[in-house]
Amino acid sequence: MKYLVTGGAGYVGSVVAQHLLEAGHEVTVLDNLSTGFRAGVPDGAAFIEGDIRDAAKWLDPSYAAVLHFAASSQVGESVVKPEKYWENNVGGTMALLAAMRDAGVRTLVFSSTAATYGEPEQIPIAESAPTRPTNPYGATKLAVDHMITGEAAAHGLGAVSLRYFNVAGAYGRYGERHDPESHLIPLILQVAQGRRPSIAVYGDDYPTPDGTCVRDYIHVADLAEAHLLALTAARPGAHLICNLGNGEGFSVRQVIETVRQVTGHPIPETAAPRRGGDPAVLVASADTARERLGWHPTRTDLADIVADAWRFTQHIAAADTVAGAESEER
């Protein structure tokens, strides 16, 4: 089968594209490289450097489906630049859906987020939980979900939205390298590398066992496998929404201690005040994904997740060192 992966030069998109290739599929990556990396496009995938607003230039009936990862995704930035998020995430997806409709491509897997829920009323969080996003990023992703529901009902689209919790780890040479970085595990690994003096702990008085926030971490390879399963679960005229997570939470201090053990490096901590809008606990109920997709995560050990991320971080550091040396020689 032939698939278009939007945002396939980014973290999750690149891992999913690689999994599709390993499953024997034909893959085209569409990415404007605003946050992705050309090196993230897997070998064997066709690459189009372009914007999803122009997807009509490339989409045709030969594509079986679109897997849509292209989006602006920094929560903090979305608060100060909400217009960017509405334009990119909502406007871009609207253009993509129109291109799919015109090309007769009627299957979509959408990269959504747990940020659509906001402050949870119950833990673990099920898909039936109220959706009350606390920032424009989550609001735009929720708006896209509503848009997809309407597209499915009116035009027969078969769609699955996958709401991620905290994605981590790496898959071979494909991993997390945001700039700027905002996710906990890669930030702590920067401390282990000596690129950052300490890790800030934002609040230590939450109602959790050690006072720090608890989050659900899911390995990016488990996440990728869910996307391939979602392709077969999509049904014309229906929009399925599934949470993806381990169903188990780890506190900030547990993550820091795990990084210490995996890397063998000291990780100094710096106390910082709570950040507004940070819930004490965010843990997913992935029962729907298990029942409807047949998805069962297997890489659930936090130490293994960190170890994969650490190997990728060291690989990138070594590659950057080699590139720097070659540049100096020239």
Word description of this protein:
By secondary structure, the chain is of the alpha/beta class. It is 40% helix and 18% strand. It contains nine helices and 13 strands. The chain has helices spanning 11-22, 75-80, 82-103, 136-155, 184-193, 220-233, 252-263, 287-293, 302-329; strands at 2-6, 26-31, 46-49, 65-68, 107-113, 158-164, 166-168, 199-202, 214-219, 239-244, 249-251, 269-272, 281-282. Strands 3-2-1-4-5-6-10 form a seven-stranded parallel sheet, sandwiched between helices. Strands 7, 9, 11 and 13 form a four-stranded mixed sheet that branches. Strand 1, helix 1 and strand 2 form a beta-alpha-beta unit.
Topology:
Elements: E1 2-6, H1 11-22, E2 26-31, E3 46-49, E4 65-68, H2 75-80, H3 82-103, E5 107-113, H4 136-155, E6 158-164, E7 166-168, H5 184-193, E8 199-202, E9 214-219, H6 220-233, E10 239-244, E11 249-251, H7 252-263, E12 269-272, E13 281-282, H8 287-293, H9 302-329
Parallel strand pairs: 1-2, 1-4, 2-3, 4-5, 5-6, 6-10, 7-9, 8-12, 9-13
Antiparallel strand pairs: 9-11
Helix pairs in contact: 1-6, 3-4, 5-7, 5-9, 7-9
